[in-house]
Write the structure tokens for this entry.
Amino acid sequence: AQTVTQSQPEMSVQEAETVTLSCTYDTSENNYYLFWYKQPPSRQMILVIRQEAYKQQNATENRFSVNFQKAAKSFSLKISDSQLGDTAMYFCAFMKWQGGSEKLVFGKGMKLTVNP
Amino acid sequence: DAGVTQSPTHLIKTRGQQVTLRCSPKSGHDTVSWYQQALGQGPQFIFQYYEEEERQRGNFPDRFSGHQFPNYSSELNVNALLLGDSALYLCASSLGAGDADTQYFGPGTRLTVL
């Protein structure tokens, strides 16, 4: 079974600063996907970024980038130029790939607060 | 392009009652997954429907059942409600075949069991 661990329950950062959220996972699978989702107080789960395990290049989406270390089973999210709208719960999630959509396994989440 | 929609937004029930939650997937998606998110926790996978069949199931009792309709919309039914069933129920849609596709979530239904 796969597990996802987010060891930092809460972080706080000033607007415009850079922050890194950590995530580790455990799996025996070789083909899989990793995701970061954010859940603002409105509670809608929103996709932030996705990484395919077979890709060596780290994924980026505007101010969001990941540091994917497959051997270490580590998948951290870097948010640059933090904005007030980035305040949310952030969840790291794992999906094994077997051809088609599989279940997501989530970590417990991390609360990020961006202060003005 | 409409995203994933869920109804109702909030629901209050008493122990022992039954509840039905509804989900309409994002346009073009054929797979619906349901998750339960207890307060302060990450979502837990309940089950997934594809081609009107339950394709995968998480570690939830048989009191949790579902259905998928020919238009790909889905229902989650919970019988004999317990206090511990109070949670946010999230629906996610995706494509069921080919490359593993990203799951897009609806706004959720907040269920309170008294």
Notes: Chain B touches chain A at residues 31, 33, 35, 40-45, 48, 50, 56, 58, 88, 90, 92, 94-108, 110 (CB under 8 Å).
